[in-house]
Design goal:
With 279 residues, this protein is mostly helical. The protein has a single domain, classed as Hydantoin permease (Orthogonal Bundle). Helices cover 74% and strands 0% of the residues. The chain has 15 helices and no strands. It is globular, with a radius of gyration of 20 Å. It starts with a helix and ends with a helix.
Length: 279
């Protein structure tokens, strides 16, 4: 009976609103950075990469990613310090800003806003599996595209349902593999395309003048960073110290993305894939 009660209390600490005591925290810097970078090293990042590559050139992409997104993250992640220090997630201390009812409305709103991204991720998963099967000579009819997206949703749901331990274990495997894939794609891209062609790349049909396009790209980086609000909720409150909680968010959601996706780092596979798509 005592074990069941302790398990119930632990569940309330990890998934409820009770503050996490220092001795109960389970994530170090490495754990936190792997989990938080998992928010960014995702297939739906390709769409953002294609969008930015249609606005500005490669050098502007680099400047926008570093000066825009990372700067925004360094400011945006500051409240995480409160979550780590007091062991509470953002929805608790945001009550002082929005009130109890207001926080519920904002939380539900953010969940609904992110649903289209989940759909994009699932659709890209299905497309990737169909294309991968095609490489092995297996032709999958197009009508299986939507059903093929369901395993992505189901697998994510199962991992999330199993809790923080399963999420930590999954990210320790998936994130390094995805980073490796990102590095491989970058190498392939830079060896398949002349470096000067990448460095001097400009969009064929920019929608506006250069200055306006650059401003829009910076705003897009800001907006993309703000969508990572989910990484400021449950994860930081489980991190062991404030410095680790803050820098795990900045590095995991900022610098690591530079390796994987040109949409946010300006020097990754999204950029190369966008170039290949124009060929």
């Amino acid at each position: 009976m005592k074990d069941e009660k302790e398990k119930e209390i632990q569940g309330e600490v990890l998934f409820g609103i009770l503050p996490v005591m220092k001795k109960e925290k389970i994530y170090g810097f490495t754990d936190a950075i792997l989990i938080l970078s998992g928010y960014c090293i995702a297939t739906w990042s390709y769409t953002q990469g294609s969008y930015l590559a249609g606005l500005v050139g490669f050098r502007q992409l680099l400047a926008g990613a570093f000066a825009g997104a990372i700067l925004m993250l360094a400011i945006y992640q500051l409240p995480v310090i409160l979550s780590v220090r007091y062991g509470i997630d953002i929805w608790i201390w945001l009550r002082s800003v929005f009130g109890t009812s207001g926080v519920k409305a904002v939380a539900v709103g953010i969940i609904l806003i992110n649903f289209p991204w989940y759909a994009v991720c699932a659709q890209l998963f299905s497309s990737s599996m169909i294309n991968l099967a095609g490489l092995f000579g297996i032709e999958i009819p197009q009508q299986f595209h939507t059903p093929g997206a369901l395993p992505c949703v189901l697998a994510g749901t199962v991992i999330a349902y199993k809790g923080v331990g399963a999420i930590e274990g999954a990210t320790k495997i998936l994130v390094p593999l995805l980073l490796l894939i990102g590095v491989v794609v970058v190498v392939v891209g830079f060896t398949s395309i002349p470096p000067e062609a990448i460095w001097d790349y400009r969009p064929d049909n920019p929608s506006s003048d250069h200055i306006t396009s650059y401003i829009i790209s910076i705003e897009a980086n800001f907006a993309f960073v703000i969508t990572l609000v989910g990484g400021m909720a449950e994860v930081p409150r489980l991190v062991k110290n404030e410095r680790a909680g803050f820098w795990a968010g900045v590095i995991g959601q900022g610098i690591f993305r530079l390796i994987f996706c040109g949409n946010r780092g300006g020097n990754g596979d999204c950029y190369e894939i966008h170039l290949w798509g124009n060929d």
